[in-house]
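Researcher: We're teaching a course module on how sequence relates to structure. For the next exercise, students receive a sequence and then see the predicted structure as tokens, so they can try to spot secondary structure elements on their own. Here is the exercise chain.
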Amino acid sequence: MQRKIDQLTESRRRIAELDSGERLVLPPEVVAILDRMRGLGISERRVRLERDAWILMQALDPQVMPQRIREKNAGFDDPETTRLYLACDQSVDWDPYDPRLDRLIDDLDAWEIKNAGDGSRPGT
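Model: And here is the predicted structure for the students to work with:
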């Protein structure tokens, strides 16, 4: 009975993976980035947008994938970049007059200035 339960549990897990589709068409490194995003608390809405962008990139210009993977991981390795990424994700649901938006814009401007001349600029 336990073996049957384990088999069914594994089947459910595999079906759930197929439902998302990303594991079928994207390299494991990209799927790891999407899983990392989920682990950071980034909304599933944003993860789906990111997934779709990766699928499009792979279809249109697969040669850029390795570099973009490195850039995306470097971005998530940087705490400030990750903080801003999360804030931008959350800000989608904010009222347009929310005072936090002004602060976020200032933070994004400061990040851009700081990273403008940096050839290793994290790409998120």
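Model: If you want an answer key for the exercise: The mean pLDDT is 87. The chain has seven helices and no strands.
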